[in-house]
Amino acid sequence: MSRLLAHFDVRFPTFHLNADIDVPLSGLTAIFGPSGSGKTTLLRCLAGLERASTGFMQFGAHVWQDEKIGLCLPLYKRPVGYVFQEPRLFPHYDVRSNLLYGYKRVPPQERRIAVEQVVDILGIDHLLERRIHKLSGGEQQRVAIGRALLTSPELLLLDEPLASLDIQRKQELLPFIHRLHKHLHIPVLYVSHALTEILQLADRVILLKEGHVVGVGVLNEILTSLQFRGSFGSHRVGAVLDACVTSHDPRYGLTQLEFMGQSLFVPLQPSAVGQTVRVHILSNDVSLVVGRTNSPTSVLNILEATIVEVREINQSSVDVLLDIGTPLVASITKRSLVTLGLKPGQQVFAHIKAVALNEELME
Amino acid sequence: MGVLTEVDLSALWVSVRLATMTVVVLLIVGTPLAWWLAHTKSRLRPIVEAAVALPIVLPPTVLGFYILVALGPYGPLGRLANVSLAFTFTGLVIASVFYSMPFVIQPLQNAFETAGKAPLEAAWSLRASHWDAFLTVISPIALRGYISAIVLGFAHTMGEFGVVLMVGGSIPGQTRVLSTTIFEHVEALEYAQAHAISACMLIFSFLVLLAVFIVNRRFPIHVS
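Predict the joint structure of the above. Result:
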Protein backbone atom coordinates (compact mmCIF):
# COMPACT_ATOMS: atom_id res chain seq x y z
CA MET A 1 0.00 0.00 0.00
CA SER A 2 1.28 3.46 -0.82
CA ARG A 3 2.29 5.68 2.06
CA LEU A 4 2.56 9.29 3.03
CA LEU A 5 6.03 10.25 4.16
CA ALA A 6 6.74 13.67 5.55
CA HIS A 7 9.28 15.52 7.58
CA PHE A 8 8.92 19.16 8.54
CA ASP A 9 10.99 21.39 10.72
CA VAL A 10 9.48 24.88 10.87
CA ARG A 11 10.29 27.61 13.35
CA PHE A 12 7.86 30.41 14.07
CA PRO A 13 8.56 33.23 16.50
CA THR A 14 6.81 31.39 19.34
CA PHE A 15 6.44 27.89 18.04
CA HIS A 16 8.54 25.06 16.68
CA LEU A 17 7.04 22.25 14.62
CA ASN A 18 9.22 19.21 14.18
CA ALA A 19 7.20 16.36 12.74
CA ASP A 20 8.08 13.03 11.18
CA ILE A 21 5.23 11.14 9.62
CA ASP A 22 4.91 7.81 7.86
CA VAL A 23 1.33 6.56 7.47
CA PRO A 24 -0.43 4.33 4.95
CA LEU A 25 -2.67 6.16 2.49
CA SER A 26 -5.96 4.57 3.46
CA GLY A 27 -8.84 5.18 5.81
CA LEU A 28 -9.04 8.11 8.18
CA THR A 29 -5.95 9.19 10.05
CA ALA A 30 -6.66 11.63 12.85
CA ILE A 31 -4.13 14.27 13.87
CA PHE A 32 -4.88 14.66 17.54
CA GLY A 33 -3.49 16.91 20.22
CA PRO A 34 -4.35 19.79 22.51
CA SER A 35 -4.86 23.33 21.19
CA GLY A 36 -1.54 24.85 20.21
CA SER A 37 0.15 21.51 19.59
CA GLY A 38 0.65 22.33 15.91
CA LYS A 39 -2.10 20.27 14.28
CA THR A 40 -3.22 22.97 11.87
CA THR A 41 0.35 23.96 11.10
CA LEU A 42 1.17 20.34 10.29
CA LEU A 43 -1.83 20.11 7.98
CA ARG A 44 -0.88 23.39 6.29
CA CYS A 45 2.64 22.06 5.77
CA LEU A 46 1.20 18.92 4.19
CA ALA A 47 -0.87 21.10 1.86
CA GLY A 48 2.09 23.29 0.94
CA LEU A 49 0.49 26.35 2.53
CA GLU A 50 3.36 26.76 5.01
CA ARG A 51 6.88 26.33 3.80
CA ALA A 52 9.30 24.63 6.08
CA SER A 53 12.97 25.53 6.03
CA THR A 54 13.57 21.81 6.32
CA GLY A 55 10.77 20.01 4.57
CA PHE A 56 10.18 16.79 2.73
CA MET A 57 6.96 15.20 1.65
CA GLN A 58 6.29 12.18 -0.49
CA PHE A 59 2.80 11.10 -1.51
CA GLY A 60 2.93 7.51 -2.77
CA ALA A 61 5.58 7.60 -5.49
CA HIS A 62 5.44 11.38 -5.97
CA VAL A 63 7.70 13.79 -4.13
CA TRP A 64 5.72 17.00 -3.57
CA GLN A 65 8.27 18.80 -1.50
CA ASP A 66 11.99 18.56 -1.05
CA GLU A 67 13.50 21.74 0.29
CA LYS A 68 17.01 20.35 -0.28
CA ILE A 69 16.47 20.95 -3.97
CA GLY A 70 14.07 23.87 -3.43
CA LEU A 71 11.07 21.85 -4.58
CA CYS A 72 7.64 22.66 -3.19
CA LEU A 73 4.65 21.98 -5.37
CA PRO A 74 2.09 24.75 -4.89
CA LEU A 75 -1.25 23.65 -3.45
CA TYR A 76 -3.14 24.15 -6.72
CA LYS A 77 -0.92 21.58 -8.40
CA ARG A 78 -1.47 18.95 -5.70
CA PRO A 79 -4.38 16.50 -5.96
CA VAL A 80 -5.45 17.48 -2.46
CA GLY A 81 -8.84 18.53 -1.10
CA TYR A 82 -8.62 20.91 1.83
CA VAL A 83 -11.48 21.79 4.18
CA PHE A 84 -10.67 24.65 6.52
CA GLN A 85 -12.02 25.28 10.00
CA GLU A 86 -14.31 27.95 8.58
CA PRO A 87 -16.18 27.05 5.38
CA ARG A 88 -14.47 29.76 3.29
CA LEU A 89 -17.14 29.57 0.62
CA PHE A 90 -16.99 32.22 -2.09
CA PRO A 91 -19.65 34.80 -1.18
CA HIS A 92 -20.12 36.04 -4.74
CA TYR A 93 -21.20 32.61 -6.03
CA ASP A 94 -24.24 30.50 -5.21
CA VAL A 95 -23.92 26.97 -3.82
CA ARG A 96 -23.78 25.31 -7.24
CA SER A 97 -21.04 27.62 -8.51
CA ASN A 98 -19.07 27.05 -5.33
CA LEU A 99 -19.35 23.28 -5.82
CA LEU A 100 -18.34 23.51 -9.46
CA TYR A 101 -15.44 25.94 -8.92
CA GLY A 102 -12.86 23.21 -8.43
CA TYR A 103 -14.70 20.63 -10.55
CA LYS A 104 -14.38 22.82 -13.65
CA ARG A 105 -10.66 23.20 -13.08
CA VAL A 106 -9.99 19.47 -13.08
CA PRO A 107 -9.48 17.97 -16.55
CA PRO A 108 -12.52 15.79 -17.44
CA GLN A 109 -10.47 12.60 -17.71
CA GLU A 110 -9.25 13.06 -14.10
CA ARG A 111 -12.72 13.50 -12.61
CA ARG A 112 -13.61 10.42 -10.59
CA ILE A 113 -16.37 11.86 -8.45
CA ALA A 114 -19.64 13.00 -9.98
CA VAL A 115 -21.59 16.06 -8.90
CA GLU A 116 -24.77 14.02 -8.27
CA GLN A 117 -22.81 11.60 -6.08
CA VAL A 118 -21.48 14.37 -3.83
CA VAL A 119 -24.81 16.19 -3.69
CA ASP A 120 -26.38 12.89 -2.68
CA ILE A 121 -23.84 11.90 -0.02
CA LEU A 122 -23.91 15.35 1.58
CA GLY A 123 -27.66 15.86 1.21
CA ILE A 124 -27.37 19.34 -0.31
CA ASP A 125 -29.73 18.89 -3.25
CA HIS A 126 -32.18 21.48 -1.93
CA LEU A 127 -29.45 24.08 -1.41
CA LEU A 128 -27.96 24.27 -4.90
CA GLU A 129 -29.55 27.55 -5.98
CA ARG A 130 -29.08 29.28 -2.62
CA ARG A 131 -26.79 32.20 -1.92
CA ILE A 132 -24.05 31.41 0.57
CA HIS A 133 -25.20 33.81 3.27
CA LYS A 134 -28.60 32.06 3.36
CA LEU A 135 -27.01 28.80 4.59
CA SER A 136 -26.55 27.67 8.18
CA GLY A 137 -23.05 26.93 9.46
CA GLY A 138 -23.53 23.18 9.05
CA GLU A 139 -24.85 23.58 5.52
CA GLN A 140 -21.92 25.83 4.61
CA GLN A 141 -19.44 23.30 5.91
CA ARG A 142 -21.14 20.51 3.94
CA VAL A 143 -20.86 22.58 0.78
CA ALA A 144 -17.20 23.22 1.60
CA ILE A 145 -16.61 19.47 1.91
CA GLY A 146 -18.51 18.85 -1.32
CA ARG A 147 -16.50 21.51 -3.13
CA ALA A 148 -13.27 19.85 -2.03
CA LEU A 149 -14.50 16.38 -3.01
CA LEU A 150 -15.44 17.51 -6.49
CA THR A 151 -11.80 18.13 -7.34
CA SER A 152 -11.51 14.31 -7.16
CA PRO A 153 -8.71 14.57 -4.61
CA GLU A 154 -6.33 11.71 -3.90
CA LEU A 155 -5.95 12.97 -0.35
CA LEU A 156 -8.45 14.87 1.74
CA LEU A 157 -7.22 17.21 4.47
CA LEU A 158 -9.84 18.24 7.02
CA ASP A 159 -8.91 20.87 9.57
CA GLU A 160 -11.41 20.58 12.44
CA PRO A 161 -14.31 20.91 10.01
CA LEU A 162 -16.76 20.58 12.92
CA ALA A 163 -15.05 22.96 15.33
CA SER A 164 -17.13 26.00 14.47
CA LEU A 165 -20.43 24.13 14.79
CA ASP A 166 -22.72 23.48 17.74
CA ILE A 167 -23.20 19.95 19.07
CA GLN A 168 -26.33 19.27 17.07
CA ARG A 169 -24.72 20.29 13.78
CA LYS A 170 -21.66 18.23 14.68
CA GLN A 171 -23.78 15.14 15.10
CA GLU A 172 -25.41 15.98 11.79
CA LEU A 173 -22.13 16.22 9.94
CA LEU A 174 -20.24 13.27 11.47
CA PRO A 175 -22.14 10.66 9.44
CA PHE A 176 -21.30 12.52 6.24
CA ILE A 177 -17.60 12.44 6.99
CA HIS A 178 -17.85 8.81 7.90
CA ARG A 179 -19.72 7.99 4.72
CA LEU A 180 -17.48 9.92 2.39
CA HIS A 181 -14.31 8.14 3.26
CA LYS A 182 -16.06 4.77 3.34
CA HIS A 183 -17.82 5.29 0.00
CA LEU A 184 -15.29 7.28 -1.97
CA HIS A 185 -12.14 5.52 -0.72
CA ILE A 186 -10.14 8.71 -0.37
CA PRO A 187 -7.51 8.69 2.37
CA VAL A 188 -8.39 11.39 4.91
CA LEU A 189 -6.19 13.30 7.33
CA TYR A 190 -8.46 14.74 9.99
CA VAL A 191 -7.32 17.33 12.51
CA SER A 192 -9.26 17.38 15.74
CA HIS A 193 -8.92 17.98 19.44
CA ALA A 194 -12.31 16.37 20.14
CA LEU A 195 -11.91 12.85 21.47
CA THR A 196 -15.48 11.84 20.53
CA GLU A 197 -14.81 12.63 16.88
CA ILE A 198 -11.61 10.61 16.95
CA LEU A 199 -13.31 7.64 18.61
CA GLN A 200 -16.07 7.62 16.04
CA LEU A 201 -14.11 8.30 12.89
CA ALA A 202 -10.44 7.44 13.11
CA ASP A 203 -8.69 4.31 11.92
CA ARG A 204 -5.28 5.65 12.85
CA VAL A 205 -4.05 8.50 14.94
CA ILE A 206 -1.04 10.81 14.91
CA LEU A 207 -0.51 12.25 18.39
CA LEU A 208 0.97 15.73 18.52
CA LYS A 209 2.33 17.50 21.54
CA GLU A 210 4.05 20.89 21.52
CA GLY A 211 4.91 20.61 17.86
CA HIS A 212 6.29 17.08 18.07
CA VAL A 213 4.80 13.79 16.94
CA VAL A 214 4.72 11.67 20.09
CA GLY A 215 2.88 8.66 18.70
CA VAL A 216 1.58 7.21 15.45
CA GLY A 217 -0.48 4.06 15.11
CA VAL A 218 -3.77 2.23 14.86
CA LEU A 219 -6.33 4.07 16.97
CA ASN A 220 -6.99 1.30 19.47
CA GLU A 221 -3.32 0.57 20.00
CA ILE A 222 -2.60 4.21 20.74
CA LEU A 223 -5.73 4.56 22.89
CA THR A 224 -4.89 1.55 25.03
CA SER A 225 -1.15 2.04 25.11
CA LEU A 226 -0.50 2.86 28.74
CA GLN A 227 2.20 5.23 27.54
CA PHE A 228 -0.26 7.58 25.82
CA ARG A 229 -3.20 7.38 28.16
CA GLY A 230 -2.67 10.89 29.51
CA SER A 231 -2.78 12.28 25.97
CA PHE A 232 -6.51 11.76 25.62
CA GLY A 233 -7.60 13.95 28.48
CA SER A 234 -9.30 11.09 30.29
CA HIS A 235 -7.61 8.13 31.92
CA ARG A 236 -10.79 6.10 31.51
CA VAL A 237 -10.93 6.39 27.73
CA GLY A 238 -10.73 2.61 27.29
CA ALA A 239 -10.72 0.97 23.90
CA VAL A 240 -12.58 0.83 20.62
CA LEU A 241 -13.11 -2.17 18.39
CA ASP A 242 -14.94 -2.73 15.13
CA ALA A 243 -17.33 -5.67 15.35
CA CYS A 244 -19.63 -7.29 12.82
CA VAL A 245 -23.42 -7.42 13.29
CA THR A 246 -24.58 -11.07 13.42
CA SER A 247 -28.19 -10.77 14.59
CA HIS A 248 -30.81 -8.51 16.13
CA ASP A 249 -33.09 -9.37 19.03
CA PRO A 250 -35.86 -6.74 19.07
CA ARG A 251 -37.61 -8.55 21.96
CA TYR A 252 -34.84 -7.55 24.36
CA GLY A 253 -33.61 -4.57 22.38
CA LEU A 254 -30.23 -6.12 21.73
CA THR A 255 -27.92 -6.57 18.79
CA GLN A 256 -25.40 -9.37 18.76
CA LEU A 257 -21.96 -8.62 17.35
CA GLU A 258 -19.04 -10.83 16.59
CA PHE A 259 -15.48 -9.89 17.24
CA MET A 260 -12.61 -12.33 16.62
CA GLY A 261 -14.84 -15.33 17.23
CA GLN A 262 -16.27 -13.92 20.45
CA SER A 263 -19.78 -12.61 20.85
CA LEU A 264 -20.77 -9.17 22.14
CA PHE A 265 -24.20 -7.76 22.96
CA VAL A 266 -24.94 -4.05 22.57
CA PRO A 267 -28.21 -2.09 22.62
CA LEU A 268 -30.23 -2.59 19.41
CA GLN A 269 -28.49 -1.14 16.34
CA PRO A 270 -30.06 0.11 13.12
CA SER A 271 -27.23 -1.48 11.10
CA ALA A 272 -28.01 -4.49 8.91
CA VAL A 273 -26.55 -7.93 9.60
CA GLY A 274 -23.05 -8.16 8.15
CA GLN A 275 -22.25 -4.48 8.68
CA THR A 276 -19.51 -3.20 10.94
CA VAL A 277 -20.23 -1.31 14.12
CA ARG A 278 -17.68 0.55 16.19
CA VAL A 279 -17.85 -0.29 19.87
CA HIS A 280 -16.43 1.79 22.66
CA ILE A 281 -15.50 0.12 25.92
CA LEU A 282 -14.59 2.43 28.81
CA SER A 283 -11.93 0.98 31.08
CA ASN A 284 -14.26 1.43 34.09
CA ASP A 285 -16.82 -0.77 32.35
CA VAL A 286 -14.47 -3.76 32.30
CA SER A 287 -14.18 -6.06 35.30
CA LEU A 288 -12.02 -9.16 35.54
CA VAL A 289 -12.87 -12.68 36.67
CA VAL A 290 -10.34 -15.46 37.12
CA GLY A 291 -11.74 -18.71 35.74
CA ARG A 292 -15.23 -19.14 34.36
CA THR A 293 -17.83 -18.97 37.10
CA ASN A 294 -20.64 -21.44 36.82
CA SER A 295 -23.04 -19.35 38.83
CA PRO A 296 -25.45 -17.31 36.72
CA THR A 297 -24.53 -13.68 36.08
CA SER A 298 -26.35 -10.66 34.71
CA VAL A 299 -23.33 -9.78 32.62
CA LEU A 300 -23.96 -10.49 28.95
CA ASN A 301 -20.49 -9.99 27.60
CA ILE A 302 -17.79 -12.27 28.86
CA LEU A 303 -14.64 -12.34 26.75
CA GLU A 304 -11.53 -14.44 27.09
CA ALA A 305 -8.53 -12.22 27.67
CA THR A 306 -4.81 -12.41 28.39
CA ILE A 307 -3.18 -9.94 30.75
CA VAL A 308 -0.40 -8.06 28.96
CA GLU A 309 0.67 -5.39 31.40
CA VAL A 310 -0.35 -3.86 34.71
CA ARG A 311 0.28 -0.22 35.48
CA GLU A 312 -0.38 1.76 38.60
CA ILE A 313 -2.62 4.80 38.04
CA ASN A 314 -2.90 6.13 41.59
CA GLN A 315 -2.86 4.92 45.17
CA SER A 316 -6.03 2.88 44.83
CA SER A 317 -6.36 1.83 41.20
CA VAL A 318 -4.44 0.16 38.40
CA ASP A 319 -4.92 -0.22 34.68
CA VAL A 320 -4.69 -3.71 33.30
CA LEU A 321 -3.89 -3.97 29.60
CA LEU A 322 -5.59 -7.03 28.13
CA ASP A 323 -5.40 -8.80 24.82
CA ILE A 324 -8.72 -9.99 23.40
CA GLY A 325 -7.40 -10.10 19.85
CA THR A 326 -7.12 -6.36 20.13
CA PRO A 327 -5.99 -4.36 23.14
CA LEU A 328 -8.51 -3.64 25.89
CA VAL A 329 -8.01 -1.82 29.17
CA ALA A 330 -9.61 -2.57 32.54
CA SER A 331 -9.40 -0.13 35.43
CA ILE A 332 -9.59 -2.07 38.68
CA THR A 333 -8.69 -1.45 42.29
CA LYS A 334 -5.27 -2.30 43.56
CA ARG A 335 -6.95 -4.38 46.23
CA SER A 336 -8.60 -6.59 43.58
CA LEU A 337 -5.31 -6.91 41.75
CA VAL A 338 -3.66 -8.28 44.86
CA THR A 339 -6.63 -10.40 46.00
CA LEU A 340 -6.93 -12.09 42.59
CA GLY A 341 -3.15 -12.28 42.20
CA LEU A 342 -3.27 -10.98 38.62
CA LYS A 343 -0.04 -11.17 36.64
CA PRO A 344 1.00 -10.57 33.03
CA GLY A 345 0.49 -13.65 30.88
CA GLN A 346 -2.44 -14.89 32.94
CA GLN A 347 -5.73 -15.95 31.29
CA VAL A 348 -8.79 -14.15 32.65
CA PHE A 349 -12.36 -13.40 31.66
CA ALA A 350 -13.31 -9.82 31.02
CA HIS A 351 -16.87 -8.84 31.87
CA ILE A 352 -17.70 -5.80 29.86
CA LYS A 353 -20.44 -3.32 29.18
CA ALA A 354 -20.13 -2.34 25.56
CA VAL A 355 -21.53 0.80 23.97
CA ALA A 356 -21.89 1.05 20.25
CA LEU A 357 -20.58 4.42 19.22
CA ASN A 358 -22.00 5.03 15.86
CA GLU A 359 -25.62 4.05 16.01
CA GLU A 360 -26.57 6.70 13.51
CA LEU A 361 -23.32 6.55 11.62
CA MET A 362 -23.72 3.46 9.55
CA GLU A 363 -27.14 3.39 8.05
CA MET B 1 -24.19 74.59 -23.68
CA GLY B 2 -24.70 78.27 -24.44
CA VAL B 3 -22.08 79.74 -22.11
CA LEU B 4 -19.36 77.20 -22.73
CA THR B 5 -16.88 78.01 -25.45
CA GLU B 6 -14.98 75.58 -27.59
CA VAL B 7 -11.98 76.05 -25.33
CA ASP B 8 -14.10 75.05 -22.34
CA LEU B 9 -15.33 71.91 -24.08
CA SER B 10 -11.82 70.91 -25.08
CA ALA B 11 -10.79 71.40 -21.46
CA LEU B 12 -13.58 69.05 -20.44
CA TRP B 13 -12.30 66.49 -22.94
CA VAL B 14 -8.72 66.83 -21.67
CA SER B 15 -9.93 66.43 -18.09
CA VAL B 16 -11.91 63.29 -18.87
CA ARG B 17 -9.05 61.78 -20.89
CA LEU B 18 -6.56 62.64 -18.15
CA ALA B 19 -8.72 61.18 -15.38
CA THR B 20 -9.44 58.01 -17.36
CA MET B 21 -5.82 57.36 -18.25
CA THR B 22 -4.67 58.13 -14.73
CA VAL B 23 -7.15 55.65 -13.26
CA VAL B 24 -6.22 52.97 -15.79
CA VAL B 25 -2.51 53.38 -15.08
CA LEU B 26 -3.13 53.43 -11.33
CA LEU B 27 -5.24 50.27 -11.43
CA ILE B 28 -2.50 48.44 -13.30
CA VAL B 29 0.33 49.71 -11.11
CA GLY B 30 -1.73 50.01 -7.96
CA THR B 31 -3.21 46.50 -7.80
CA PRO B 32 0.10 44.68 -7.23
CA LEU B 33 1.36 47.47 -4.96
CA ALA B 34 -1.83 47.45 -2.87
CA TRP B 35 -1.67 43.66 -2.72
CA TRP B 36 1.92 43.80 -1.54
CA LEU B 37 1.06 46.40 1.10
CA ALA B 38 -1.90 44.35 2.29
CA HIS B 39 0.06 41.13 2.76
CA THR B 40 3.74 41.88 3.17
CA LYS B 41 5.58 41.39 6.42
CA SER B 42 8.49 43.46 5.11
CA ARG B 43 9.94 46.22 7.24
CA LEU B 44 9.74 48.50 4.21
CA ARG B 45 5.97 48.53 4.42
CA PRO B 46 5.48 51.65 6.57
CA ILE B 47 7.96 53.55 4.41
CA VAL B 48 6.11 52.66 1.23
CA GLU B 49 2.77 53.39 2.87
CA ALA B 50 3.97 56.82 3.95
CA ALA B 51 5.31 57.55 0.47
CA VAL B 52 2.02 56.55 -1.12
CA ALA B 53 0.04 58.73 1.30
CA LEU B 54 2.34 61.74 0.85
CA PRO B 55 0.20 63.53 -1.80
CA ILE B 56 -2.65 63.78 0.72
CA VAL B 57 -0.69 66.12 2.97
CA LEU B 58 1.87 67.63 0.61
CA PRO B 59 1.06 71.03 -0.94
CA PRO B 60 0.30 70.26 -4.61
CA THR B 61 2.81 72.90 -5.59
CA VAL B 62 5.60 70.97 -3.87
CA LEU B 63 4.65 67.76 -5.60
CA GLY B 64 4.18 69.63 -8.86
CA PHE B 65 7.56 71.31 -8.53
CA TYR B 66 9.48 68.07 -8.10
CA ILE B 67 7.58 66.32 -10.84
CA LEU B 68 8.26 69.29 -13.11
CA VAL B 69 11.97 69.02 -12.39
CA ALA B 70 11.90 65.26 -12.93
CA LEU B 71 10.04 65.62 -16.22
CA GLY B 72 12.23 68.42 -17.54
CA PRO B 73 14.95 67.79 -20.15
CA TYR B 74 17.55 67.26 -17.39
CA GLY B 75 15.30 65.35 -15.00
CA PRO B 76 15.43 61.53 -14.75
CA LEU B 77 12.07 61.02 -16.47
CA GLY B 78 12.83 63.59 -19.14
CA ARG B 79 16.14 61.89 -19.92
CA LEU B 80 14.46 58.52 -19.98
CA ALA B 81 11.97 59.80 -22.54
CA ASN B 82 14.79 61.68 -24.29
CA VAL B 83 12.48 64.68 -24.52
CA SER B 84 11.10 67.13 -22.02
CA LEU B 85 7.73 65.94 -20.77
CA ALA B 86 6.96 69.15 -18.95
CA PHE B 87 3.89 70.98 -20.28
CA THR B 88 2.72 67.92 -22.22
CA PHE B 89 -0.31 65.68 -21.76
CA THR B 90 1.93 62.69 -21.01
CA GLY B 91 3.64 64.71 -18.30
CA LEU B 92 0.25 65.53 -16.89
CA VAL B 93 -0.70 61.84 -16.74
CA ILE B 94 2.55 61.01 -14.91
CA ALA B 95 1.97 63.83 -12.43
CA SER B 96 -1.66 62.79 -11.88
CA VAL B 97 -0.64 59.20 -11.26
CA PHE B 98 1.49 60.35 -8.32
CA TYR B 99 -1.03 62.90 -7.15
CA SER B 100 -4.03 60.50 -7.15
CA MET B 101 -2.11 57.43 -6.05
CA PRO B 102 -3.33 57.28 -2.41
CA PHE B 103 -6.94 57.57 -3.53
CA VAL B 104 -6.61 54.38 -5.57
CA ILE B 105 -4.09 52.42 -3.49
CA GLN B 106 -5.75 52.87 -0.12
CA PRO B 107 -9.23 51.55 -1.00
CA LEU B 108 -7.62 48.62 -2.81
CA GLN B 109 -5.29 47.88 0.09
CA ASN B 110 -8.24 48.02 2.52
CA ALA B 111 -10.26 45.69 0.30
CA PHE B 112 -7.39 43.19 0.04
CA GLU B 113 -6.79 43.31 3.78
CA THR B 114 -10.48 42.71 4.44
CA ALA B 115 -10.61 39.84 1.96
CA GLY B 116 -7.54 38.32 3.62
CA LYS B 117 -5.67 35.29 2.39
CA ALA B 118 -8.37 32.80 3.35
CA PRO B 119 -10.37 32.91 0.08
CA LEU B 120 -7.13 32.76 -1.87
CA GLU B 121 -6.01 29.58 -0.10
CA ALA B 122 -9.46 28.09 -0.65
CA ALA B 123 -9.18 28.86 -4.37
CA TRP B 124 -5.71 27.28 -4.53
CA SER B 125 -7.08 24.17 -2.87
CA LEU B 126 -9.64 24.05 -5.69
CA ARG B 127 -6.94 23.97 -8.38
CA ALA B 128 -7.00 27.67 -9.22
CA SER B 129 -3.60 29.13 -10.08
CA HIS B 130 -2.54 32.45 -8.54
CA TRP B 131 -3.87 34.50 -11.47
CA ASP B 132 -7.04 32.49 -11.73
CA ALA B 133 -7.68 32.84 -7.99
CA PHE B 134 -7.06 36.56 -8.11
CA LEU B 135 -9.39 37.16 -11.04
CA THR B 136 -12.22 34.85 -10.02
CA VAL B 137 -12.18 35.15 -6.24
CA ILE B 138 -10.20 38.11 -4.91
CA SER B 139 -11.32 40.72 -7.46
CA PRO B 140 -15.04 40.05 -7.01
CA ILE B 141 -14.68 40.04 -3.22
CA ALA B 142 -12.70 43.30 -3.47
CA LEU B 143 -15.18 44.77 -5.96
CA ARG B 144 -16.27 47.57 -3.65
CA GLY B 145 -12.67 48.53 -3.13
CA TYR B 146 -12.25 48.72 -6.90
CA ILE B 147 -15.36 50.85 -7.31
CA SER B 148 -14.18 53.24 -4.59
CA ALA B 149 -10.69 53.34 -6.09
CA ILE B 150 -11.98 54.11 -9.58
CA VAL B 151 -14.46 56.76 -8.45
CA LEU B 152 -12.10 58.48 -6.02
CA GLY B 153 -9.17 58.30 -8.43
CA PHE B 154 -11.25 59.69 -11.27
CA ALA B 155 -12.91 62.44 -9.26
CA HIS B 156 -9.70 63.45 -7.57
CA THR B 157 -7.87 63.72 -10.89
CA MET B 158 -10.74 65.74 -12.36
CA GLY B 159 -10.40 68.13 -9.45
CA GLU B 160 -6.64 68.56 -9.28
CA PHE B 161 -5.39 72.07 -9.81
CA GLY B 162 -2.04 72.93 -8.29
CA VAL B 163 -0.08 70.04 -9.76
CA VAL B 164 -1.68 70.54 -13.18
CA LEU B 165 -0.78 74.18 -13.20
CA MET B 166 2.82 73.48 -12.19
CA VAL B 167 3.44 70.59 -14.56
CA GLY B 168 1.10 71.29 -17.45
CA GLY B 169 0.76 75.02 -17.61
CA SER B 170 -2.61 75.65 -19.12
CA ILE B 171 -2.19 75.12 -22.83
CA PRO B 172 -5.64 74.98 -24.44
CA GLY B 173 -6.39 71.61 -26.02
CA GLN B 174 -3.34 69.99 -24.46
CA THR B 175 -2.97 70.62 -20.78
CA ARG B 176 -5.81 72.97 -19.99
CA VAL B 177 -8.24 71.03 -17.80
CA LEU B 178 -11.56 72.07 -16.26
CA SER B 179 -10.14 73.25 -12.95
CA THR B 180 -7.58 75.47 -14.58
CA THR B 181 -10.23 76.75 -17.01
CA ILE B 182 -12.34 77.89 -14.10
CA PHE B 183 -9.33 79.71 -12.73
CA GLU B 184 -8.67 81.40 -16.08
CA HIS B 185 -12.32 82.49 -16.31
CA VAL B 186 -12.26 83.94 -12.82
CA GLU B 187 -9.03 85.76 -13.61
CA ALA B 188 -10.74 87.25 -16.67
CA LEU B 189 -13.81 88.07 -14.55
CA GLU B 190 -15.97 85.74 -16.70
CA TYR B 191 -18.07 84.66 -13.76
CA ALA B 192 -20.92 83.24 -15.81
CA GLN B 193 -18.64 80.72 -17.50
CA ALA B 194 -16.78 79.93 -14.30
CA HIS B 195 -20.12 79.35 -12.66
CA ALA B 196 -21.38 77.08 -15.44
CA ILE B 197 -18.33 74.81 -15.30
CA SER B 198 -18.22 74.80 -11.51
CA ALA B 199 -21.88 73.87 -11.28
CA CYS B 200 -21.39 71.06 -13.80
CA MET B 201 -18.49 69.66 -11.78
CA LEU B 202 -20.43 69.95 -8.57
CA ILE B 203 -23.43 68.09 -9.96
CA PHE B 204 -21.24 65.51 -11.72
CA SER B 205 -19.28 64.74 -8.55
CA PHE B 206 -22.43 64.44 -6.51
CA LEU B 207 -24.12 62.13 -9.01
CA VAL B 208 -21.10 59.84 -9.25
CA LEU B 209 -20.85 59.49 -5.49
CA LEU B 210 -24.61 58.98 -5.23
CA ALA B 211 -24.41 56.21 -7.81
CA VAL B 212 -21.64 54.50 -5.84
CA PHE B 213 -23.60 54.60 -2.61
CA ILE B 214 -26.72 53.27 -4.29
CA VAL B 215 -24.82 50.45 -5.97
CA ASN B 216 -23.20 49.50 -2.67
CA ARG B 217 -26.55 49.47 -0.93
CA ARG B 218 -28.47 47.66 -3.62
CA PHE B 219 -25.88 44.99 -4.27
CA PRO B 220 -24.15 44.42 -0.97
CA ILE B 221 -21.32 41.95 -1.04
CA HIS B 222 -21.81 39.38 1.65
CA VAL B 223 -18.62 38.15 3.17
CA SER B 224 -19.21 34.95 5.10
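The interface with chain B takes residues 47, 49, 74-76, 80-82, 84, 86-92, 101-102, 105-106, 131-133, 140, 147-148, 151 of chain A (CB under 8 Å).
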